[in-house]
Design goal:
mainly alpha
Length: 249
């Protein structure tokens, strides 16, 4: 019955993911978000939650009812998910340039639609503040946005500016100066460094991953270990049930 206990938390968690996905889909599913992420994140949550529920349900019922067929479905599904994750990780490692390009396309779309969706705006602000970066390659990437575009014909009051999340906070500041990035795109890199983070988020992401390899490895292991244990326990239980059937026969 060990596998039943092991499968119960993922079963509850999968239902929670489905609930969050449904709620997000009802509350917020704008065309802007879909265009930026290519796939609606709410739909992704629902699909992942349903798959998790199916796999863990097979594990729970298969263990409780000692149903070999359900246990084999559970073991096969876990193995398939594990191998898929491994394949994605390996491909991401060997095709790091393509992965970086894909992330660059996402960030570019996020910059273009920055003012079109509040959730997207908050996400970009969070990324830039946490990684202390601005844009993807550098701060001039914000010219991709309609409002921050630096062309002379742009009537926006934010022309040649960058979001305040690019700004380096001063120790004496108690209130955030939301206009600190105004006109920054017209400055050279040396002058811009005095008020904003001049480094792009691409370089910051690489630096973060290199300095947190242990954390990345621990997270990867924490995802893979329960799956390996689930596969191992299901195979043991299948073997025990088959032995009991042979002994009866």
């Amino acid at each position: 019955m060990q596998i039943t206990v092991a499968a119960l938390p993922p079963l509850v968690f999968s239902l929670l993911i489905v609930a969050i996905g449904v709620y997000a889909n009802i509350q917020k599913a704008t065309d802007t978000v879909r265009d930026t992420f290519l796939i609606d994140p709410a739909v992704v949550l629902i699909v992942v939650g349903v798959v998790m529920f199916f796999v863990t349900f097979c594990g729970c019922i298969g263990a409780l009812r000692e149903n070999i067929r359900l246990l084999k479905i559970f073991s096969f599904s876990l193995t398939l998910v594990f191998l898929t994750q491994m394949a994605i990780a390996i491909l991401g490692f060997f095709y790091s340039d393509q992965t970086r390009d894909a992330l660059g396309k996402f960030v570019k779309k996020a910059i273009v639609h920055y003012r079109d969706d509040l959730d997207l705006q908050n996400l970009m602000d969070y990324i830039q503040k946490e990684f202390k970066c601005c844009g993807w390659n550098n701060y001039t990437d914000w010219s991709w946005n309609l409002y921050f575009n630096c062309t002379p014909s742009n009537p926006s009051t934010e022309r040649c500016a960058v979001p305040f999340s690019c700004c380096t906070p001063l120790p004496e500041e108690t209130v955030i100066n939301t206009m600190c990035g105004f006109g920054v795109q017209t400055q050279n890199n040396l002058d811009a460094t005095k008020s904003i983070y001049p480094v792009g988020c691409a370089d910051r992401a690489v630096i973060w991953i290199e300095s947190h390899l242990l954390l990345v490895g621990a997270l990867t292991l924490s995802l893979a270990l329960p799956q390996i244990v689930g596969i191992f326990l299901s195979q043991i239980l299948i073997s025990e049930i088959q032995k009991e059937i042979r002994s009866i026969l």
